[in-house]
Amino acid sequence: MFEIEIFKKKGFKNSHGEHVLSDIFELAIKDITKVEYSPLYLIDGDINLSEAKMTAVELLSDKITESYAVRRYSDLNSKTVNLQMLSASVIEVCYKKGVTDTVVESVMKAVKDLGIDKDIKVRAARKYYLFGTVSKTVLNIIATKLLANTLVQEYKIK
Amino acid sequence: MKKIKVLILRTAGTNCDYETQAAFELCGAVVDCVHINTLIERKDKIFEYDILAFPGGFSYGDDIASGKILANEVKNKLGDEVREIALSGKPIIGICNGFQVLVKMGLLPDPKLFEQISTLSYNDSDKFECRWVYLKTEKKVKNESSCIWTKNLPDIISLPIAHGEGKFIPGDKKLLDILNKNNQIVFRYSAKDGSDPGYPLAPNGSVEQIAGICNTKGNVFGLMPHPERYVFALQHPAKEGFDGKYGCGRIIFQNAVNFVKWS
Q: CA-to-CA distance for B82 and A53, rounded, in angstroms?
């Protein structure tokens, strides 16, 4: 299984992160100073590293404004984690099992269009890096009030 | 007289195909809206047409990024054919989502290169922006650009926009200089008097207010605003138009039809 995370390159505006930050201020939470947003894709199945990288380059990231990290699922706790992001709290949001995720269906179709004709399973998530010192309770408020619709989505705080 | 045939490529999520069809028909063309799967099954069919149009909408739900999945699909399955049409000089237009497709597959700004060297990214506001805007078709551009689609337009025109990812970003400064030097920047967002606009008239934060570009030959044209939504004066909020009846958008489609008719 591979995890592909997409980052904005330096110098390009993380519009969604800034939007979330302004929404956090409106909740009267002033201790978050910056929010970075990263789309995240988990791809499971019979694909190899070069196919995962090709998917990241050709499909999941924008060549001009974005970079990517491809990690084997077994490496997720290793040093491949983006060091700049280590000081941040992380909230990851994805659909609950059983809820249709149209992004996933589009990715599976598009991977085949790339010529990777293999059976794969995909999960998509939205990852938010929140910079600043806040308690887990506050992170829970941010997650439930702003980032996740808990009826159909689940979230993890890391 | 020769009938001008237009192919409008549609797929899941395109939703401006009928308006685009109506605009071309108003200009005297015969139009087919063809699903991409049909075209992939019979690739040579694409050469039967004089003009190719990528309409606006939300292809594949704008999943991953707007236009990205359709761009990959076209490039991987119809890339040779589409590139050949572009290089042959036949008119190609990409409107809004279609512009995103052209840019992300690399047909714009340079179909010879056919690599993505610029992008259309998320609006600075992180919101879907939907309104009428002013566009500058600078005199210099109008007279010197080789763009076949934008001849005879007034200096400032008004068109509606509706997009969440319309911020044009060239890959580097060198490319921006080339686009400027070759007069490939066809439309820029502007204020009503032609001066630099602020938000919301500049809806997305595009570099140098770029709203539309063409290739050096001028036959491949992409723009974020929707000319097909302003072919009649009645469609304008103030009912403005020319000849008391038509909107500026019509001129764009008529230019392409006339180009084919007279070439």
A: 26
Domains of chain A (ranges, CATH numbers): 2-157 (3.30.1280.10)
B126 with A19: Cβ contact below 8 A: yes
ipTM: 0.90
Rounded Cα–Cα distance for residues A33 and A111 (Å): 37
Q: Is A146 exposed, middle or buried (0-12, 13-18, 19+ CB in 10 A)?
A: middle
Interface test with B, best of A14, A36, A57, A63 (most B CBs within 10 A): A63
DSSP characters for A57-123? Answer: IIIIS-TTTEEEEEEEGGGTTSTTS-GGGTTSEEEEEEEPTTS--HHHHHHHHHHHHTT--S-EEEE
Domain count, chain B: 1
A103 touches chain B (CB under 8 A): yes
- Per-residue pLDDT tens over the stretch B147-196: 999 998 999 999 999 999 999 999 999 999 999 999 999 999 999 999 99
Known catalytic residue: B236?
A: no
Structure tokens at B62: 């704008």
Of A18, A107, A114, the CB nearest to B64: A107
Residue whose C-alpha is closest to residue B170's, from B108, B84, B258, B226: B108
Residue B158 structural domain: 5-262
Q: What is the CATH number of the domain that holds B62?
A: 3.40.50.880
**Rounded CA separation B119/B86 (Å):** 19
Fill in the DSSP letter of residue B4: P
Closest-CA residue to B207 (of B167, B156, B171): B167
Q: Which of B219, B263, B260 is nearest to B49 (CA)?
A: B260
3-state class percentages of chain B: helix first, strand second, coil last, to nearest 5: 35, 25, 40
Count the Cβ atoms, other than its own, within 10 Å of residue A87: 10
- CB-CB contact of B91 with B256 (8 Å): yes
Neighbour count for residue B164 (Cβ, 10 Å): 18
Q: Is A63 on the interface with B (CB under 8 A)?
A: yes
Residue pair B215/B110 in contact (Cβ under 8 Å)? The answer is yes
Q: Do A109 and B60 touch (CB under 8 A)?
A: yes
> For B257, phi and psi rounded to 5 degrees?
-65, -45
Q: Which residues contact A50 (CB under 8 A, 6 or more apart)?
A: none
* pLDDT tens digits, one per residue of B107-130: 999 999 999 999 999 999 999 999
Based on the residue annotation, tell me whether B226 is a catalytic residue of this protein.
Answer: yes
